[in-house]
Amino acid sequence: MIYLDNSATTYPKPTCVYEALDYANRNLAFNAGRGNYSVSNQASKIIDETRESIASFVKADARQVSFVSSATEALNLIILGLHLEDGDCVYISPFEHNAIVRPLYTLKNYINIEILILPFNTETWEPNLPKIEEMFSIKNPKAIFISQLSNVTGLLIDYEQIFAISKQYNCVTILDSAQSFGIKNPNLDNVDFCVFAGHKSLYASFGVAGIISKKYKELKVIKSGGNGSNSLNHNMPDSGPERIESGSPNIVAIYGLLTSSKWLKNNDVLKHEEELTKYLIKSLSSLKKIIVYKPSDIFKLLGIVSFNVEGYLSDDVATILNDEFEIATRSGYHCSPFVHNFIDSEKYNGTVRISLGAFNTHDDIDQLICALKSL
Fold it and tell me: CB under 8 Å to 289, separation ≥6 — which residues?
């Protein structure tokens, strides 16, 4: 199998990660922070070390890093904890994933918030900053959500300028870095909450993700329970990552994340993905009947490219690639409801998405191109 669906989850993982997961299951699978015995204490130290390793990607403090089960859980905890009220305006980009969109619209069923989509240029895919400033001045932003990297188009979104403008209105800023953290690390200036996912660009397993923030105390408690600290207190802690961490930590997945984060620091996956992305776009663009969704400046894309084939629905192309060539791609709408109107792919029922990873090669792309030539 040629695996080209790394945006959903990176595969394969580095060998050291598989070894770490096996080791942790056999030797570290104890309840961290719940027992005053050596292996429980060792598990607690591993969690602390992993916080430090994740924080080092963005020069944050380890105490700013919290661990939860998935980026979706992290975003739910943030969205439902933001103290949004009737009449508040929330802004999102047209590239946002349903991990943001659905919790917001679920909340809208109970609170009369307004969800507005930021304007982007359909040719350059750049944010229309003058229009955004105008929108903010008319309807002040209470919170703004932007993905660092679009899971459909591979666009590295210019979140920094948008967040800088929004801070003039005391806006809460949330950056979804699930697709890029560990490879293309964000600048957290003007970012209140940054979300990461272990099983994607961090090359760890399912079951671990998290938030980086200095402002946990500003969130309402949405999920509560034991976390091994201050157990006689009926309430969750007032601040720190423990405010949103409850239940037994997934020490196995966290140890895998520690191992993968160390591996990433010794392997230039960013350079590899940049090179493969350029090669993929050039190769796809050479084919007739292929529609490649890209901005005027292709250097804004990283690791992910969407396309369609004239005369085929996206699902049909992905099925042929799988059944006849054993090439695994993703087709459809990719859990991102607004971007397909922006790139005009709805008539194809979404896109065929190629998402590259550390272990893909030029030969993988060449075989994809050969397969597409048969259509």
Answer: 309, 310, 311, 375
Alpha helices in the chain (DSSP H): 15-27, 38-57, 71-81, 98-108, 129-138, 159-166, 251-265, 269-285, 314-325, 339-343, 362-373
The two structure tokens encoding residue 37: 């015995």
Is residue 69 within 8 Å of residue 99, measured between CB atoms?
no
User: What pLDDT was estimated at residue 244?
Assistant: 83
Rounded distance, CA 291 to CA 242, Å?
Answer: 47
Q: What 3-state class would DSSP assign to 311? A: coil
Q: Return d(Cα 316, Cα 337) in angstroms, integer.
A: 20
Gap between the Cα atoms of 199 and 5, Å rounded: 12
Question: Which residue(s) pair with 326 in the sheet?
Answer: none
**What is the DSSP track for 291-307?**
EEE--SSGGGB-SEEEE
Residues of the chain with pLDDT under 50: none
Using alpha carbons, list the distances in angstroms from residue 228 to 32, 35, 165, 212, 257: 8, 9, 40, 21, 22
- CATH numbers and ranges of domains, the chain: 2-12+267-373 (3.90.1150.10), 15-265 (3.40.640.10)
Which three-class secondary structure state does DSSP give residue 212? strand
* Pair of tokens at residue 338: 């607004």
CB 23 within 8 A of CB 252: no
Chain center to CA of 5: 14
Q: E strand or H helix at 175, and its extent?
A: strand 172-176
**pTM for the full predicted model:** 0.96
Q: What is the DSSP string of 109-163?
A: TTS--EEEEPPB-TTT--B-HHHHHHHHHHS-EEEEEEESB-TTT-BB--HHHHH
350: DSSP letter: S
Q: Would you say 178 and 71 are in contact if contact means Cβ atoms under 8 Å apart? A: yes
Please confirm whether the linkage preceding 241 is cis (ω < 30° from 0): no
